Amino acid sequence: MKNDRMRTIKRTALLTLIALICASLASGLEITASTGNNGKISLTGVQFGANVNDYASGQVQLNPESSDLSDSFSGTGSLPYSYISRSDSKGNYVVAYRSVSGVSGVTTWNYDWNTYTPYSSTAGYGVGAWLRFNVNRAYSFKGGSKGQNKEGDYASSFAQGSSYSTTSYLSNMYTYTFAFSNEVFSRLSADYGSATKYLYFDTASSNKEGESSYHWIDAYGTSSKTARVYSPYIDATARKTYAGVYGRTTGAYGSSAIFRTHTQNKAKMIGHEGTYYTGGGDFGVNIKNYNKLSGSVLGQSYTSNVYLYPSTNVPSYRKAYLLDPFRYEYVNKHGYKDWGSDSFSALMNKGHAVTYYWNSAVSHSRVGEMDDYYISAIKGHMGPNVIEVTRAADTDRVVTGSELKAMFTKTNGLTMLAGCESFKPGANSALANAIKSKSWLSGGYDYSVNSKGNNLYMSKFFSYLTSGYTARQSSTYATNYVKSTLGVTAKPIWTPSTHDFRLL
Questions:
Q1: pLDDT tens-digit readout, 161-209
Q2: What is the C-alpha to C-alpha distance for residues 327 and 339, in angstroms, rounded to an integer?
Q3: Partner residues linked to 142 by β-bridges
Q4: H, E, C per residue of 301-346
Q5: What is the value of pTM for the model shown?
Q6: Residues 292, 303: contact at Cβ < 8 Å?
Q7: Which residues pair with 146 in a beta bridge?
């Protein structure tokens, strides 16, 4: 085998076919294998980019009787993108894949993957694929699995890392996806991952009815200091009327380490100018300077509602809650400034754990949940005694001052009710009195504020607040900006009049 190009493949023409591959001093090797029976098909494409110092050894095994296929290899150098897949006559399909960019004689890797036939008591037989993957001293890597069914359900999970030099590592990654005619599920876990450019552990799900959910555990490094994620665990589920994701880690570190979850549906909302079918929620936190980010987030989207369940190591005084019940009319229909998205990003990137609901996801009960957060704001249609929300049920479309007062019992933080006449007259409205228990600061308008100006004001207010200014300073600067930009006044009043507020 010395100084030549040798490819050795041993075959047996039985139900089981095994190919043994040894490559040395080779410029490359590619193997394609398939097996199928009774409407089931498994495929794999195995590629190796070899150089004089590289090796690749392992085996490929096919079982035509059950249509299963597997292979396992270890080697050095780069490992071009390859896959293993399985499909059936019901329209179910899954695939697992991996790739490595490395240096000959430096980068090492090993993997093992397989297709299989899962069984469901409600859907019968489906298709499945899994991958185990390890990478050491690589420029970059990617590995994951995904699947879909004929119904239109989709789920995926993957890990990806990239570095400025051969400093990307992935330890004991395991991912699998299965697909049935009524559900698709994908999961990925690992012991550890590191990279100097970026490191991703992401998962997603969606269905044809319009529900979708996404979750990211992302960390970014520098040329001199790696990003690290310990014990990442992510999964995604999709079926008719539901799409959900989950993610957790015991510790993510980087120049920036991000937990980000998005979920949305097409639940009915009633606006002032029509009826729409849109709703969603977002959770995000960005911890910088290699401080620890740990915890978990569950995001769920059903036909009728969306839910977010975050639990992180972020302290309570860094938790924020934003509600934008008329986002579709203001932003999508009229093109006003997207204050909710802007404020979400500003607070998240300042190290705050932010929960944000919009359109039909803003319910009566979620207005009451504002009191559970150190920073909270809602912008929309209001009056001195009423906050309007956009849920379809008539009993869930307004929150009165007396209801709000019963909901608000905590004292610390900042609360904003950014709607027309919410504090009329002079911070003595039913709504204003309901949130006066806030010992720091609460704000609202004592007149009918221009909606376009209000959107812009809220966006600029949180921009200034996250730049180090106090709430009163931020309010002044935001008011001046709106006046100079739009020629309208958006100037809330504050209570207690002797207090101010600054982000901690």
A1: 999 999 999 999 999 999 999 999 999 999 999 999 999 999 999 999 9
A2: 9
A3: 99, 160
A4: EECCCEEEEEEECCCHHHEEEEEECCHHHHHHHCCCCCHHHHHHHH
A5: 0.91
A6: no
A7: 95, 156
